[in-house]
Amino acid sequence: METKNCQICGNNDWMPLPDPNKNQSVTTASRVLREPLGKSQCNHCGFVQRTRIEFLGLTDYYEQDYATYYDRPGTDLFHKKRYAAIIDWMTSYLDPKSKFPKQIDIGCGQGWAMERMREIYPDAVLEGVEPSHYNVRVAVEKGFTIHEGKIEEANLQAGSYDLVFSNNVIQHVNDARDFLQQLKKLVSEDGVIAITCPDGSRPNIEILWGDQNFSFLPENLIGLAKQIGFNTVFWACSGDSPSLPPAQLLILTNNKLYDQLSFNPQDAHVDLTDIYRKRHEYLSSFEHISKHLLANIPEGSRVINFGASYWTSVLAAYCPEYWDKVAFCLVDTDAGNSMFMGKQVLEMQAVTPDNTDTIVIGTGPGWQQQLKDKLSDTWHNVVLWDDLLRY
Ligand SMILES: [Zn+2]
Known about the structure:
This protein is α/β, with parallel strands linked by helices and about 400 residues long. It folds into 2 domains: about 65-265, Rossmann fold (3-Layer(aba) Sandwich); about 275-390, 3-Layer(aba) Sandwich (Rossmann fold), CATH 3.40.50. Helices cover about 25% and strands about 20% of the residues. Bound molecules: zinc ion. Zinc ion binds near residues 8, 42 and 47.
């Protein structure tokens, strides 16, 4: 598998992007990798690829380690809501009269998207494909038929699915073009392929993950899709919404019902110099965030990280000196007595505040000030950092 050439345009002319930390990176499963992020932007098409490090998909990561992604405090509710929002958005572009009697979810995880699809299409036969053994077991317990393995390994009936859908998978695969070809094999003559993935035109958390090999600009995704050979290639991007991180959607079909579906190519256009500058700045921010956090922790203070999810894992990996100082994570949900990345997770009522405590917000940017206001009733020293992470 050649990881050096751009999977979109074939060139080997990369502009390196900074590593948020020189020694380590982190995966969406909160696993710290002892290797830098290693991503670069293609000088010709703006595609981001993990060029300096081997793809994790070439190891047994997805089979063995991926499940820990779901094994975190409060995740069930978090992912159920998140996938319901993605599915509602995705299905809003599908023909409302179509019943899609046979459907398959590629990379279905524990079946959160399928749970929502089952509500929308109660009469459909719904199958899933998933490489993680643990995830397969949970999805099967929910009553779904799951084919264990990667799509190319699963023994699926070609041309038999009326709807082939896949959410947040294409950025993880080893070969994005081959992935779309595999989906094409599965879909019926009049069937529809619908995929969603992060929108790489707005620098966001998606570029920080070591298990995401690619960041697609809209034109990257559309360009790739056009090479697959469907009559209709439709693209859309999500608006800014707290329930849906910046995302993009592709619909591929030969079904005439979708002939009229179109988009304005101008909406998909991104200036490559501008996006490189933004990505560069975004990835460089963690050096500043790390310094800022350390500067705001007084000597001898007990350090409490508020949160135990995505953004906390980003801080843990990219600001490791801060993470070393953290005594425990604090959450306002029912977390039981769990662990997160080696730290204990405690609920609010289990903690007696002390005047010398430092609370660092370990949740996503955008609403840290709001959280600070809330926590400041109890704690004097609440530290936020999202003003250092622009875009
Ligand atoms: Zn390229």
